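Collaborator request, handled under Task 6.
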Amino acid sequence: MAEKKQILVVEDEADILELIRYNLDKEGYQVLTAATGEQAMAAARTRPPDLVVLDLMLPGIDGLEVCRLLRRQPATEALPIVMLTAKGEEADIVAGLELGADDYITKPFSPRVMIARIRSVLRRGARGPAGPPGPIHLDALSLDPGRREVRVEGEPVQLTYTEFHILEFLARRPGWVFTRSQIVEGVRGDDYPVTDRSVDVQIVSLRKKLGAMARHIETVRGVGYRFKEPS
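Structure tokens returned to the collaborator:
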């Protein structure tokens, strides 16, 4: 029998904490809980869990600082983190993703959506965050980095250098949400002089060229973009 995945839930509101704990327990996860950032750091250092559900609004050390500290320590730098945020806290969502959080859930949330998001992040971790270096095949899209070739439903699609690498960056991590600056960093590096607006322009052009596959490049309002996971 496979060992239960261990999830650390960091939330200071007792009713929300119990709701999350109950639903995770029902799905077969082993649940640890913490009500403060300090408790979360102590628990993660003692035995790093398989995933952290992290509220951003915490007493003492807030969730963003916890995320930053976890990413700085070798034992927890790759630990999957799903943020909990109040609806409309777009700036905090962007900040958390920039610090290395893997996904986010806005309050109020559906327990079923929460479980689906957690499963998705755990699956990504199991297969590695960057994916294999070879060709990508997602629904009707095929992308071959070696040949720098993209096809949709078997037909070739002509992309610019930047369009190709933005598409590859997103498609290698289906379901992951990336801010515009993360896309720039992943495609060109920190020192490439490109603005958020130019990323938007590249995405618009990509969608026009991808035809039926354009629907897979989703805009996450106030945050950035993701490549929708095939159903």
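The cover message to the collaborator said: "The domain at 136-227 is CATH 1.10.10.10 (Arc Repressor Mutant, subunit A). Residues 127-132 have pLDDT under 50 and may be disordered. Please let us know whether this matches your experimental observations."
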